[in-house]
Amino acid sequence: MQKIERIFKGMIKDSEIQKRATEAVYQRGCRYFKNKAVKKMKLHKDGHYTAEVWGNSIYSIAVHLTDQDTVHSCSCSCPAYDLYDGICKHIVAVLKEMQKLQFMDQLQNMGMHQESKGKLFSLFAEAVQSNEVADMEPLHLIPECRCTQQYNEMTVWLEFKIGRTRQYVMRNVADFVKSMLYEEEIVFGKELTLRPHRIKFDALSQELWDLLRMAYEDEKSLSPYSAASGISKTFDQKRFKLSPSNLVKFFTIMEEHAFSFGLNEFAPTRIKIEESRPQIRLMVNDLAAGGQLSMGQDELVNLDKNFRYLLYNHTIIHKVDEEFSRYIKPLIQCFKEDKHIKIDKKYMPDFFSNVMPEIEKIVNVKVAPSFLNRFEILPLSADIYLDYAGSGIGAKILFSYGDVTFNPAIGSQEISTMNRKILIRDQLVEGQILRFFEQFEFRAEQELYVQKEEEQCYNFLTQALPELTELADIYYSESLKKKPIQRLEKVTAGVSVNQDNLLEVSLNHEGFNLNELLDIISSYRLKKRYHRLKDGTFIPLEDDALAGVADFVENTGLQAGKAEFIRMPLAKAAYIDSLAKEEHGFRLERNQAFKKLVTDLKDPMDADVEVPESLKKILRDYQKVGFRWLATLAKYGLGGILADDMGLGKTLQVIAFLLSQRDDAKSPSLVVAPTSLMYNWLDEIEHFAPELKAIVLAGSKSERREKLATIQGADLVITTYNMLKKDIEEYEKLDFCYCFLDEAQHIKNPGTQNAKAVKRLKTHGYFALTGTPIENTLTELWSIFDFLMPGYLLSHKEFKNRFEIPIIRDQDKHALRDLNRHITPFILRRMKKDVLKELPDKVEGKMINEMTTQQAKVYLGYFMQAKQEFETGLAQSGFNNNRMKILALLTRLRQICCHPSLFLEDYKGGSGKLEMLEEVVHDAVDGGHRLLIFSQFTSMLAMIGAKLKKAGIVYEYLDGHTPALERIERVKAFNSGTQPVFLISLKAGGTGLNLTGADMVIHYDPWWNPAVEDQATDRAYRLGQKKNVQVFKFITKDTIEEKIFALQQKKKALIDQMIQPGDNFLSKLTETEIRELFNTK
After folding, report:
1. 86, 659, 776, 1006: which could join 612 in a potential S-S bond, CB 3.0 to 4.6 Å?
2. Which DSSP category does 903 fall into?
3. Could you tell me if 585 and 539 are in contact, meaning their C-beta atoms sit under 8 angstroms apart?
4. Counting beta carbons within 10 angstroms of the beta carbon of residue 228, is it exposed (0 to 12), middle (13 to 18) or buried (19 or more)?
5. CB-CB contact of 303 with 248 (8 Å)
6. For 354-396, how does the pLDDT look when each residue is reduced to its tens digit (9 = 90+)?
7. Is the model's pLDDT at 918 over the cut of 80?
């Protein structure tokens, strides 16, 4: 008990709050608190509190407490705070919120368990609620509506009775509203004393109370002077004046309830609101001076300014639709002036023609029989005759009523029928028809309406004519051919493959000859809205279907005045086929040879080409598709880009193709590759197709010339871009069977010597291999295609204007789609994710590099020196005593393979292996791959890092000096980040790391023990890896690395069984095997 007393001791007391507020205000404030109306409570540094209370508006409250946690001062922005003594309900709510916060703080300070806190707070909340009084029987507000009409203005007042079982007249509506808002007691009689906090209205009364409250608050906010002075335009003792908007709100509230209503001097009666049209009856009486329109005994009064609520015969209020209110408004306004509207005799025809049809849309009209003897109402029949008027259009319009026909272009006054009755014309429809001709600026000339301007004629025929057909019958002259607008129906193109292996393409249309058709397409290309034939017929050109025809004409080169067909190369076949299939309004008729050509290009897997027997079990399914695709293109004399992702075996697919063509080839094929990849080609051929004779054209200029003279007996010649540039004059004298550009992005710039040189070669088929046919600009793609099929993608200038500039600068989707149609048949690109199921989880391979000239000299010198030291050591102390010395000699040779600068400070001759790494990394990063690069030598990693930094490639780094905590952070950064490369010391990063963010591993310098390399590889190839992992070992040609790798492969089984990660492969080699490493043969 003492604990509970301590809790309440530091809180604002309820008695203090009640002392500052009336009972009604206190109860109202408690309800605000209970309903969580207190927002943004804040304790400031000086100890005072501020908050907002959300009621009818948002009010700001400030409270200052004394040191004893009693209220020192407070304020609120609400109107009641300034008008009355004591605190308002909003301050009460804030004090109760403060009380709650103090309560919770006390619990916290006393260290009470959460369950105990919950129980105590529930008791606190119940204590607040217990001060509120239970609801009583619903209270009823009963309205009486009175309207006063003076000088065409309607004033509407409401008076109220209030009560539960007995009703009392509300003698002052404003006082009632004010007392309710400020929760003051209201006495109506002995049996009705209202305490606002205990009031509960019935549903209808609640809506009426809300209407009163909002009107009161609106007036206070809009007219502060009226509120302060007590003068109100809305409240007058027991009357509440309804504004136009509040009138509509009141009628909406009362739509399902009867209520007391009185107009002017009429006593109030019970009335209801119905959503319907009043059944009004109008009469047109015959007078000597004309006619008279009257409503008879009916009376219709509009109660709102929009004429939506109409009092009919003081018995019902009709809520009418918008159409009725629009037409009834002028009638009611006229009848307010006089119960009978007189119409002069001369206006009676106009009344019957124009006014009465409008009135009859909403009410019944009874016409005096005597009028029928003088006027005749007949249906209108309109005929329009169209003909050419010079280069423009003329229209003859005839309006007919029975036997009477007249031409409005000549003019018409009062028209009589055959029996001399005055004709009542349908001037509404006549006017509609004539307005079409006015809208398109036709002018009356004798009997015709004429428009001579071509543009307006086209607008009239396409925009007005379709709507005019709903109002009139249209007749065309013979010269108009009954159809002045002729839409271009489906165009038919024919395409076939002729005996000379060329495409023959034609274009035709049933309604037009070729020259007319080409003129129409020319107008479309100029973005004209229409094309006009010589006979005057308009051809609309605002039809997307014409785009396909226009593209077809442009891309086939069809020209007016030429033959009915043109010949073009087979390369266009797939483009023409896709163009016709994608475009509407265009049909292509194909012969059988053309269909087979397109099918072969689009579905190479079904091509009738046998995979070489020796490779059937080696090639994966997607590689067989690539092989057949190459063979199909070669069969038709076409070229293409094999753009598979890195590691998918582009080289193997080409080898399979060359093997299949070997027997038919009359000359060798040529591969042009980067220097770093030249010997990889030779290695792959020796491995997969040793029967192919391949020659590498390298060495000095004289050596290369000597080899060139002997290539006729070879199947394949391999050279580099650099060598080709130097020897191009010799190469262009030769004929090759096929030419393959490996890493064809080397010719992406058409102005370079690389690009110029390869385009001087003469072969029977041209192919490109690259994972990145486009790196920066579309010109790169054009340059490769200019090698494959010169002219296929136009000249460079035409390509830029038609494709590159619209696509890159203007984001032209049509140009992009058209370019894709051109290139798709000639690019085969598969990503690893597309052939994931066919790939092993880990793909391992080696990449062979050649040393630079200076590097080779350094290596040879050190190799001869090492060999001599090896022989001397063996002679002096034997093999086993020299193992450490041998290891040191071999390590030095391995460092030269990596880069001679690892121990030669002034060396400037470069490294073939580092150059190959640069190319591989660039291609891999461009292809979206992420790499781990391992090296035993940290100084080599530093050199690689410098190259990456210079190229703008971000990387992570880890070696034996990296602190343990920092190792973890760098691994996390790589796995979750975007850095494409991680450089790792083999010993430092070979174990304990999880680097599944990578999908490519490069062993820059092979380690003696393959198990150590495998452990390093497993940093990427491990649980959690979702991609296939490629592993490459970089091997320098004709060096100790090549011999060590060969020994490792030879003794692979022994290594797997006997050598553990901590062992040294070198220690397992015999003296004979070590001698073989130093053998120069």
Report:
1. 659
2. T
3. no
4. exposed
5. no
6. 787 778 778 888 887 777 677 777 888 999 999 988 889 999 9
7. yes
Distance in angstroms (rounded) separating the CA atoms of residues 472 and 917: 82
Residue 784, pLDDT score? 96
- Residue type for position 386: L
Instruction: Pinpoint the alpha helices (H) of 959-1031.
Output: 964-976, 986-989, 1010-1017
CATH number at residue 1042: 3.40.50.300
Domain boundary among 480, 512, 527: 480
- The pTM of this model reads 0.54
What is the average per-residue pLDDT within 751-765? 94
Question: Are β-strands 273-274 and 316-319 bridged in parallel, bridged antiparallel, or unpaired?
Answer: parallel
Quick check: 716 and 668 in contact, CB under 8 A?
yes
- Alpha-carbon distance of 460 to 485, in angstroms, equals 11
More confident residue, 542 or 766: 766
CA distance 171 to 165: 18
**Residues 822, 705 within the same domain:** yes
Domain identity same for 71 and 167: no
Reply yes or no on whether the pLDDT at 985 is more than 50: yes
Q: With H, G, I as helix, E, B as strand and everything else as coil, classify residue 1023.
A: coil
- 875 and 852, same structural domain? yes
For 850-889, how does the pLDDT look when each residue is reduced to its tens digit (9 = 90+)? 999 999 999 999 999 999 988 888 888 888 888 888 888 9
- Joined tokens for residue 227: 């509120």
Q: How many domains does the chain have?
A: 7
- Measured in Å, how far apart are the chain's first and last C-alpha atoms? 104
* SS3 label, residue 530: strand
pLDDT in tens, 567-623: 888 888 888 888 777 665 567 788 888 888 888 888 877 777 889 999 999 999 999
Q: Which of 109, 106, 78, 97 is nearest to 32 (CA)?
A: 97
- Could you please report the per-residue DSSP string of 981-992? EEEEEHHHHSSS
204 and 104 co-located in one domain:
no
Buried b / exposed e over 167-197, threshold 16 CB at 10 Å, is eeebeebbebbbbbbbbbebebeeebebbbb
CA distances from 1077 to 543, 850, 858, 1012 (A): 77, 18, 18, 21
Phi-psi region of 411 (alpha: psi -120 to 50; beta: other; left: phi over 0): left
Per-residue pLDDT band at 111 (split at 50, 70, 90)? low
Scan for tokens 């709650």, then name that residue.
100
Instruction: Provide CB contacts within 8 A for 1020, sequence distance 6+.
Output: 932, 995, 996, 998, 999, 1000, 1001, 1029
- How many Å apart are CA 1042 and CA 906, to the nearest integer? 27
809-844: b or e for each residue (b if 16 or more CB lie within 10 Å)? eeebeebeebbebbbebbbbebebeebeeebeebbe
The reply to whether 713 and 793 lie within a common domain is yes
Question: End of a domain among 70, 97, 129?
Answer: 129
What are the structure tokens assigned to 466, written together?
Answer: 């379709």
pLDDT at 554 over 50: yes
Number of H helices, E strands in the chain: 41, 48
